[in-house]
């Protein structure tokens, strides 16, 4: 009899546990079945992870994101690891990322299309690789049907606040997570141009997640030596400002950032190299109010860039200073970087354009 009672208790306890395990928790998300949605043609359901948290546990659910895939392109939000490695390992391979034709690195870059004492790297021409060329206006015309309106608005807002008048140079950094963090800050603050001197591509690739893919939207130039980098920057009209704690250093708050300036940050341990200090036009520093006498290099770069934007806005009324023509060219550049399919779409547009203007015999 006792054994029978024990058996009954065990059975009831097992049944209770089973019912408890199948009962939905308060933190779960119930979703309607997919069949209840009526999908317009050209739309698909894409999974999107949503995180919820209850008082005692954390669970993951799923939400539904409807994205237009036809005729619009999906944004390629990051470069592949291979592209990043190739870009950073080969200074002459910048064209792997940059699509519109660029001005020569030659020291005499002056011309009617370049505003005096101000650098802009792109020409109003995209070579399709099949002999045809497109202007920025034609690139935008080709890409417009394939990019969502919300994405195009994002591009316009970003370009409106972009500037080449102040650029960033990172020299000899050891922690390439810092390079990635600097790129992310540069993109967020409206800096289009970043220069990297002496880069270890593998270590950068391993820390690329820190940048959140920001390098896709920046113009990154790689240099083998500080001398080469500074020589080209000076030929483009930049003054070189190296960050250095010394008696001759000028406070960043006393500088006029409306002048074209290249900000140089150096190695985490050694700081700016002696060669960079020698070749720079001035030394600057961030006033320190605490016991420590330096910031982390990525933090320092963020502070420098943020103050430069604030100072330029105070003096000029704006930070982004591209002309209408330059803005259109950069919009075309962003459109071509938007997706891996963008180049083939532009090429097909160029072929149709060539066919239309070919005289019939």
From TrEMBL:
Entry keyword Methyltransferase: yes
Query: What keywords are assigned to this protein?
Result: Methyltransferase, RNA-binding, S-adenosyl-L-methionine, Transferase, tRNA processing, tRNA-binding
Q: Which domain of life is it from?
A: Eukaryota
Q: Which InterPro entries would you find in this protein's record?
A: Alpha/beta_knot_MTases, SpoU_MeTrfase, TrmH, tRNA_m1G_MTases_N
Q: Name one GO molecular function term.
A: RNA methyltransferase activity
Q: Where is the tRNA/rRNA methyltransferase SpoU type domain?
A: 166-306
Against Pfam families, the record matches this protein to: SpoU_methylase
- Which GO BP terms apply? tRNA guanine ribose methylation
Q: Does the keyword tRNA processing apply?
A: yes
* Protein name according to UniProt: tRNA/rRNA methyltransferase SpoU type domain-containing protein
User: From what organism does this protein derive?
Assistant: Carpinus fangiana
């Amino acid at each position: 009899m006792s054994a029978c009672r024990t058996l009954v208790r065990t059975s009831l306890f097992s049944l209770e546990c089973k019912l408890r395990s199948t009962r939905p928790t308060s933190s779960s998300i119930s979703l309607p079945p997919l069949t209840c949605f009526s999908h317009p043609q050209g739309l698909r359901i894409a999974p999107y992870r949503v995180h919820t948290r209850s008082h005692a546990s954390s669970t993951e659910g799923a939400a539904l994101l409807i994205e237009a895939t036809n005729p619009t392109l999906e944004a390629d939000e990051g470069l592949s690891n291979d592209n990043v490695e190739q870009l950073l390992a080969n200074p002459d391979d910048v064209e792997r990322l940059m699509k519109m034709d660029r001005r020569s690195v030659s020291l005499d870059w002056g011309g009617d299309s370049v505003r005096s004492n101000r650098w802009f790297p792109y020409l109003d021409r995209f070579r399709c690789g099949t002999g045809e060329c497109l202007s920025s206006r034609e690139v935008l015309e080709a890409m417009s049907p394939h990019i969502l309106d919300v994405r195009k608005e994002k591009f316009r807002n970003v370009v409106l606040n972009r500037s080449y008048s102040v650029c960033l140079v990172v020299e000899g950094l050891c922690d390439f997570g810092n390079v990635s963090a600097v790129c992310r800050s540069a993109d967020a603050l409206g800096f289009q141009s970043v220069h990297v001197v002496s880069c270890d591509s593998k270590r950068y690739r391993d820390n690329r997640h820190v940048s959140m893919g920001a390098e896709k939207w920046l113009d990154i130039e790689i240099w083998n030596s500080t001398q080469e980098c500074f020589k080209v920057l000076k030929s483009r009209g930049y003054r070189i400002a190296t960050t250095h704690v010394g008696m001759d250093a000028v406070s960043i708050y006393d500088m006029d950032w409306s002048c074209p300036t290249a900000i140089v940050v150096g190695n985490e341990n050694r700081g700016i190299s002696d060669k960079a200090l020698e070749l720079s036009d001035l030394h600057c520093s961030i006033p320190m109010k605490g016991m420590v006498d330096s910031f982390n290099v990525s933090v320092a770069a963020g502070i420098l860039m943020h103050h430069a934007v604030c100072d330029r806005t105070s003096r000029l009324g704006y930070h982004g200073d591209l002309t209408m023509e330059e803005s259109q060219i950069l919009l075309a550049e962003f459109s071509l970087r938007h997706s891996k399919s963008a180049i083939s779409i532009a090429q097909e547009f160029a072929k149709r354009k060539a066919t239309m203007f070919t005289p019939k015999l």
